[in-house]
Automatic annotation (TrEMBL):
Family, per entry: Belongs to the UbiA prenyltransferase family. Protoheme IX farnesyltransferase subfamily.
Keywords noted in UniProt: Cell membrane, Heme biosynthesis, Membrane, Transferase, Transmembrane, Transmembrane helix
GO molecular function terms noted in the UniProt entry: protoheme IX farnesyltransferase activity
Annotated source species: Rheinheimera maricola
Protein name, UniProt field: Protoheme IX farnesyltransferase
Other facts noted in the record for this chain: Carbon 2 of the heme B porphyrin ring is defined according to the Fischer nomenclature.
Cell membrane found in the keyword field: yes
Membrane-crossing residue ranges in chain numbering: 25-44, 50-71, 92-113, 119-139, 146-165, 171-194, 215-236, 272-291
Enzyme class, broadest EC rank: transferase
Length: 303
């Protein structure tokens, strides 16, 4: 079996390396970084900066994801959701995956440092460190608040996009970070409810394992309310207009409805449906910010 695995075709190996980078997650991270870049200036940002920042942020995010595969290979091998991952299965060795991750990280960092700016390069590297080291190596194994604190790393891309274009940290960019920060717990805990037994088996202190499924569902409900409130902020500070306000309210009401159903009227598929909706929610929310930015209807209240 192992030798059959090792003689995989070139396309198969390429697919395995791609899987290491968690491409769908990175795609959404990059989308949020783009929105940060677009919202940072009135018109369109400089095209070269946009391309270089996209590539640099994407490469460092992919490197962080590959490092996560290396660090988590033993627990990945024991969980139904992750047992067939390339490092967990031995299709890619630890040295190969590690060198790949470091190569991506170095290229990404040098690209950002030399063609974008130093602040973006260092903040993106700090995000990689936050996810691959602080979250994956320590927090994940230490506390059920792991994804609340670790979620900050994944929430950073809008700020990274903003600094790429302006070289400065701006309050509006921090609002976008806060949105993803508040979104991450209901995103992850919905999946963790569905996969509770997997996490219990490998002794990961995820909230449904440590505090039970009912408590986790209640906290998810509270976070969707918090998210609703945080999502009002771009409108209230005059950063976004009516298109965003209406769209975001509808999206958040729907997320609250999923959370409510998960708590009070669940069926077997409700937790996964909530998790899947969380991804659609964030993607559409950030697209709305973009549409609103270019077709802005003035807010009723401009401070
Ligand atoms: C610490 C914070 C986060 C945790 C713990 C987390 C956890 C997870 C987990 C366990 C999965 C399932 C992966 C799989 O089945 O292979 C997942 C999927 C996903 N996450 Fe997150 N996530 C976090 C933050 C984010 C952020 C910030 C984004 C984007 C902005 C994101 C976007 C996605 C997407 C798009 C998927 C679906 C991937 C797929 O279908 O292959 N996540 N997340
Ligand atoms: C540079 C930068 C912006 C870095 C952010 C990197 C990044 C890939 C963040 C995404 C968060 C994520 C997929 C967490 C799941 O990890 P997990 O280990 O809990 O889930 P798993 O069991 O599916 O691996």
């Amino acid at each position: 079996m192992t030798s059959a695995v090792k003689t995989k075709s070139g396309v198969g190996r390429l697919h395995d390396y791609l899987e290491l980078t968690k491409p769908k997650v990175v795609a959404l991270l990059v989308l949020t970084a783009w929105v940060g870049m677009m919202l940072a200036v009135p018109g369109l940002p400089d095209l070269f900066t946009l391309l270089a920042a996209t590539l640099g942020i994407g490469l460092l995010s992919a490197a962080a994801a590959a490092m996560n595969h290396v660090v988590d290979q033993r627990i990945d091998a024991q969980m139904a959701r992750t047992y067939s991952r390339p490092v967990a299965k031995g299709r890619i060795s630890t040295p190969q995956a590690t060198s790949f991750a470091f190569a991506l990280a170095i290229v990404g960092f040098v690209l950002l440092y030399t063609t974008v700016n130093a602040i973006t390069a260092w903040l993106t590297l700090a995000s990689l460190f936050g996810y691959a080291v602080v979250y994956t190596m320590f927090l994940k194994r230490a506390t059920p608040q792991n994804i609340v604190i670790g979620g900050l790393a994944g929430a950073m891309p809008p700020l990274l996009g903003w600094t790429a274009v302006t070289g400065e940290i701006h309050g509006h960019a921090l609002l976008l970070v806060m949105i993803i920060f508040a979104w991450t717990p209901p995103h992850f805990w919905a999946l963790a409810i569905h996969r509770r037994d997997d996490y219990a088996k490998v002794n990961m202190p995820m909230l449904p394992v440590t505090h039970g499924i009912e408590f986790t569902k209640s906290v998810i409900c509270l976070y969707t309310v918090l998210l609703f409130i945080v999502c009002l902020m771009p409108y209230l500070v005059g950063m976004s207009g009516a298109i965003y306000l209406v769209g975001s309210a509808l999206l958040n009401l729907r997320f609250m409805q999923y959370a409510w159903r998960l708590k009070f009227n669940p069926h077997a598929g409700t937790a996964m449906a909530t998790f899947k909706f969380s991804i659609v929610h964030l993607m559409v929310l950030f697209l709305l910010l973009l549409v609103d930015h270019y077709f802005k209807v003035s807010p009723i209240y401009v401070p």
